[in-house]
Amino acid sequence: TDVNWGPLDALIIDTPPGTSDEHLSVVTYLQDSAMDGAVIVTTPQEVSLMDVRKEINFCRKVKLPILGVIENMSGFVCPSCGHVEHIFAPSTGGAEAMCKQMDVPFLGRIPLDGRVTQAGDT
């Protein structure tokens, strides 16, 4: 079924990790649109960063510009004191180090914050 979204400022497509058929389908389906590029989301763990490296190479192969990488679940914010604990401490420097190695913009970190979950439940 075709969907007419109308004019969009942004279209967010959440895909599974890696470079599966879904990624190729999305790029193929949207190839005639005026895509600015992809924002890739990872976590600090090396297993996630390995998938993101593949995704970056995939984007380069299909000539999809990479706007940058965001590191999600980058620490846990204590609701009492605000201290950030890195429960998924990166073993290889995390997304920021990977971005430097691969010459991709690093857009920032998003910590785990229970207030976000609470806000979504209300």
Automatic annotation (TrEMBL):
InterPro entries: Mrp/NBP35_ATP-bd, P-loop_NTPase, YlxH/NBP35. GO terms for cellular component: cytosol. GO terms for biological process: iron-sulfur cluster assembly. SUPFAM superfamilies: P-loop containing nucleoside triphosphate hydrolases. Keywords: ATP-binding, Iron, Iron-sulfur, Metal-binding, Nucleotide-binding. GO terms for molecular function: ATP binding; ATP-dependent FeS chaperone activity; iron-sulfur cluster binding; metal ion binding. This is Uncharacterized protein.
